[in-house]
Amino acid sequence: MIFVCLREFETDMSSTTIDISRTGFSSEVFEQFLATRSEPSWITDARRAAFDQYQNLLQSELDPEEFKRVDLRVFNAGKFRPSAGTVDSSSISTLLSDKTEFGGSVAHVNGQVTQATVSDQIRAQGVLFGELQGLMTTHRELLEPYFMKKAVQTDADRFSAWHAAFWTGGTLLYVPRNVEVALPLHSLIAHSRDGVADFSHTLIILEDGARATLLEETTSANDDIAGLHVGCVELIVGRDANLRYVQLQNWNQKSWHFAHQAGCVDSNASLQWTVVGLGSKLAHIHQDINLNGRAATAEVNGVTFVSDRQKISYYTQQHHKAQGTHSDLLYKEVLRDEARVIWRGMIKVDPAAQQTDGYQRSDALMLSDDARCDSIPGLEIEADDVKCTHGATTGRVDKEQIFYCMSRGIHRHEAMHMIVEGFFQKVYDRIPVEIVRETLSRTVQGKLGIESIAV
Fold first, then answer.
1. DSSP helix/strand/coil, 284
2. Coil/strand/helix, residue 4
3. Residue 197, pLDDT above cutoff 80
C-alpha cells in the first residue's frame, strides 16, 4: 500500500530562475583554490571529481519542490571567495564556548583551523577529535569510507557538490566502540573578514555502543562583514550508540547559509539533534534523518527566531527504513518585523519499516503583521502497520494576553518575553544540556531587544 499525504499553502513565489554566472565558482576559481591547498593527491582527486559534478549540476534547475519558495535571484557567489590567509579566533565572541566545561574544542575562522584541543583522558580512550583534514590524512583507512558516502551524497544537488569540491577544514569526532565521552565537546565556525566563502564540514562517527555530545556554533566577528557558508554535517550513529548534537546558527544578517545535514542511525541507537536558527540574511538547510536499523530512534528539536527581513528555510525528511523505528520532530519558530520562515517536512516510510512511529510538528508565532511562515508537513508511507502523525500551526500573539500582563504592572517587553519563552518551553524541556537552554533564553531576550546578550 502506498499512501501519500501533502499539505500545500498558497504562495506567491514563482519558480526559481537563476543566472548561472552568479550561482557558483568557475574553473579558474577552483584551480586557484587548489593552488593554496597542501593535501594528499587522493583528496585532490576527489575534489576534481566533485567539481565535475558541480559544473554539470549548475546547468540543472534546483528541485522545485524544495526551492520554489527560496528566492535566490539576488544571491551572487562572485562576491565571495575562499580565504587562505592566517587568522585568529581570540577576538571572536561566542555564545557557548566559555559557559561550561568542555572535554575538547575546535575553532575554525574563515575556513582555517585556529585551535584544536582535547583532554588527555579523552584522547587516551582512543577518541579522535580535531581538525578534519589533518585527521582524514593520518587516518585515511578509518575515515575515508564515511566522508560524503554514507550520509550526505556529493551529487545530491549543486550545493552538496560545491561543498565537496571546496570543503575547507571542519570538525571530526570519532568515538570507538563502547566508549563514552563524559564531557561535551565544542566546535566553532566563524567568519572574520568581508567576502569570505567558508565550506566547513562536520563529521561525527560513533561506533557501536559509543556515547558523546557535541555543541557546535556558527558566528560572525561583527555585523558589518558579508559571508557565505556552504556547509555539511554528517552524523553516523552505530548500533546501541547515543549521540547528542546541537548546532547553534548565529551568523550576522549579511551572511548566506546553505547546508546539507544528514544523520544515519543504526539498530537500537538514538540521535538527539537540536537545530537553532538565529542569524543569516538567507539560510536554507536540507536535513535528512535516516533510521537505518531496527528500533532506531531520532528526536529532532528546532528553535528559530528571526527578525528584520531574515529568511530561513528548512527542508526536513525523516526516513524510516527498518522495522520498529521512531522519529519525533518538533520545530518552533518566532518571527517579527518582515521576517519569513519556510518549513517543508516529510515523513517517509519504506515497505520494510513496519511498526514505525513517526511524528512531526511545526508551530510558528508571529510578532508582527508583516511576518510570514509557510509550514508544509507531508507523509509518504509504503507500509501498512505504522503510526505517523504530522501537523503545523501558525498564530499571532494574543493582544489580550499583553494587556493582561501590562494591567498588572509588567512592562510590554517583559510580557512579550514571557509569552515567547512559554512558546519555546516545550522544546527547551526536550534539550537535556542545561547550557544550551540557558543560552537560548538569553538570545530570545536579545532578539526581543530587552537587553544585550552577555557573552
1. strand
2. strand
3. yes
